[in-house]
Amino acid sequence: MTKTIRISAALVVRDDGHVLLVRKRGTPAFMQPGGKIEPGETAEEALIRELFEEIGLVATIAELEFLGQFEAPAANEPDHVVVADIFQLHIDGHAVSAVAEIEEIRWVSPAEPGDILMAALTEHHILPLNRQLRAAIGD
After folding, report:
1. Where are the beta strands (DSSP E) in the chain?
2. Helix (H) or strand (E) holding 44
3. Contact 39/116 with Cβ under 8 angstroms?
4. Secondary-structure breakdown of the chain: helix, strand, coil percentages, each rounded to the nearest 5
5. Exposed end of the chain (fewer CB within 10 Å): N or C?
6. 15-55 pLDDT tens trace
7. Do the beta carbons of residue 12 and residue 30 sit within 8 Å?
8. Which CATH superfamily is domain 3-136 in?
9. Pairing between strand 30-31 and 19-24?
10. All structural domains of the chain with their residue ranges
11. For the whole prediction, is pTM greater than 0.85?
């Protein structure tokens, strides 16, 4: 039986259009920063906490733009599906770094992310959504 994990994740975007991907220590796949929603937390509160814990970023709920809820196989937990509330966050000028369980961060072009292994949620939902959003504004 497949188990569900509720998460909140961020499509972190710089002014040049590149997006931030992170890779957790001991895992092969890159994904958006974010994580599990704890009991009593809203999706926004969980994401604010996770962004600080994972990449040292201080953000506010007002800066988050809700993009939708998506479902995909979990990258690091077999027989699990992630149901993710995805928020966009523009952060030009803010420094980020790998903290806690994050081993590596990488800024990638959503159109040409390169030859990296990505979580299904990132590869099949979030990056395509980002490309659609950029096309809609003529970027």
Report:
1. 3-13, 19-24, 30-31, 34-36, 65-73, 80-90, 102-108
2. helix 43-55
3. no
4. 25, 35, 40
5. N
6. 899 999 999 999 999 999 999 999 999 999 999 999 999 99
7. no
8. Nucleoside Triphosphate Pyrophosphohydrolase (3.90.79.10)
9. antiparallel
10. 3-136
11. yes
